[in-house]
Design brief:
alpha+beta
């Protein structure tokens, strides 16, 4: 109970919650009527799987350095998204790559989020730097770049990230 309260109040719940996702995947593959019945009858199972994931599996992943590692693939609106989260064994820097493919499996876009040795986070779209966040430990500053690599804005982030700006940068 104390672990759950600490994790939920501090935002330290990390990891993939794989057990919970597998159970939800099973339930969501059923037709709508069966799905509703399963949700009503097995709500406690979701709570148990989340607790086991939170306290046991995610703690093990954290101490072994596997937090956020993995490869995921999903389909939405006729597009296939391939997501890969990695942690470099040499310098423990994290990197996430999101590849989007069209109906014909043709690559449409690649977005890469990565930590740098200088403690910054960079976002690249199709190999071009589009955003960088620095001073993460104090007052974060977000730098936004246009398609030609020119600095568009340099903004201090207080409470909210410029999500609309980042969304616009990744849209085509």
């Amino acid at each position: 109970m104390a672990c759950s309260i600490m994790a939920l109040s501090t935002g330290c719940a990390s990891g993939g919650f794989k057990l919970t996702r597998e159970y939800a995947g099973f339930v969501n593959k059923q037709n709508i009527i069966v799905r509703i019945i399963i949700y009503l009858l097995t709500g406690i199972i979701f709570a148990i799987t989340m607790l086991v994931d939170l306290v046991i599996f995610n703690t093990i992943d954290f101490w072994e350095g596997r937090v956020s590692q993995g490869t995921y693939e999903f389909n939405k609106d006729g597009k296939t998204f391939h997501v890969r989260h990695e942690i470099s064994p040499e310098n423990s820097l994290k990197r996430s790559t999101i590849e989007m493919f069209g109906v014909d499996k043709k690559p449409l876009q690649e977005v890469v989020l990565q930590e740098t040795p200088g403690g910054e986070i960079e976002m690249s779209v199709d190999g071009e730097l589009r955003a960088r966040v620095r001073n993460i430990g104090s007052l974060p500053v977000a730098s936004i770049f246009d398609r030609d690599g020119h600095l568009v804005s340099d903004t201090m982030i207080f409470a909210e990230a410029p999500i609309a700006t980042l969304t616009a940068l990744t849209a085509r």
